[in-house]
């Protein structure tokens, strides 16, 4: 599964606007920017993700025969519009924050510069891709920052809101610093390390726990991690110890156990004692079962001897903040800066850049949002990634994106690293951008009818 899907996966108004633009010959260069109006409650920062799937979508955008036939037969559009769609390709330029970049409210994550019809049509799908992956990456980042280097695995496919969501969530979580996923297709498609052992049904299908443990260990001698909470967790741990001695004579090592229910801290302490006393001090203890970053923090603060965590529902659905207030707005058309002035939804006009400043110790000190031509001190965050409808460079390896994200965490001010709401990170609007906004306001007011 890729981001290359039917161009009909869009809102109807994208097509109705296109037909109106085509009839009126409006197809000069437009500039749209994608940004988040405000951070969700409980988020101190967001993580840019989904760019590669967005670029894949743009490169492969085209209406095929079956889609053109549907448009023609739908009764919604005029006949000539089908001919226009048949030749439509994305031929624009794209500027974006590289994946893994930490960003904040009102900062453009992506800019599209293309003929108006092309730039307008892609709005819905770009928001769909980037909104979701950035949302999940930001959620995953919170677990990464509290986990203190412990193993983190995405277990969320079965609770994801659809197949693509589960696949993209696995990618976004890995990009944000998770160690792997249980989603097999994500391993095949993206090269994400795969983790997983057995379900409770495997234990139940056997006549006894020990029999189930041994069957699995002999089937997968290099990955003998055993699920021990189907019946009685501590009793199962003792059975693992006895079985391990027998397996050792055949060169099979029990790598660890997984606990999926109950008081995880208490069970982990008891199981750790049983394993250590039974000669298995190197055996890992993994935990899963309705975990999120807050429960991770509690377990770690309590000193629970847990080596790794599987996190599912809360991650893939970003359950505490299941959406971003992301938008894709027209900022320039036919060479003139434009802005929306709706109450509580006003935008900053023109092509913009974000400059990030750093303190002497390397931590982020503040961002400046300004017009593209207003050079500021600091690191510019948006870079060109597509020209004339084609990528400028091959996609970076996902592992490299992950490394970049982890490096950016180290630049976070300490207050932003925790789970509690922190004072907002400073994002300054430069005088040049404010001046452009005033200029656009005056122009719009002078052109408004009496």
TrEMBL record:
GO terms for molecular function: nicotinamide phosphoribosyltransferase activity; nicotinate phosphoribosyltransferase activity. Residues 152-330 form the Nicotinate/nicotinamide phosphoribosyltransferase domain. Keywords: Glycosyltransferase, Ligase, Phosphoprotein, Pyridine nucleotide biosynthesis, Transferase. It holds the Pfam family NAPRTase_C. Its EC number is 6.3.4.21. Pathway: Cofactor biosynthesis; NAD(+) biosynthesis; nicotinate D-ribonucleotide from nicotinate: step 1/1. Catalyzes the first step in the biosynthesis of NAD from nicotinic acid, the ATP-dependent synthesis of beta-nicotinate D-ribonucleotide from nicotinate and 5-phospho-D-ribose 1-phosphate. GO terms for cellular component: cytosol. Residues 379-436 form the Nicotinate phosphoribosyltransferase C-terminal domain. Residues 8-131 form the Nicotinate phosphoribosyltransferase N-terminal domain. Transiently phosphorylated on a His residue during the reaction cycle. Phosphorylation strongly increases the affinity for substrates and increases the rate of nicotinate D-ribonucleotide production. Dephosphorylation regenerates the low-affinity form of the enzyme, leading to product release. GO terms for biological process: NAD+ biosynthetic process via the salvage pathway. The lineage of its organism: Bacteria, Pseudomonadati, Pseudomonadota, Hydrogenophilia, Hydrogenophilia incertae sedis. Belongs to the NAPRTase family. It is an enzyme of class 6 (ligase). This is Nicotinate phosphoribosyltransferase. Coiled coil: none annotated. It catalyses: 5-phospho-alpha-D-ribose 1-diphosphate + nicotinate + ATP + H2O = nicotinate beta-D-ribonucleotide + ADP + phosphate + diphosphate. InterPro entries: Aldolase_TIM, N/Namide_PRibTrfase, NAPRTase_C, NAPRTase_N, Nic_PRibTrfase-Fam, Nic_PRibTrfase_pncB, Nicotinate_pribotase-like_C.
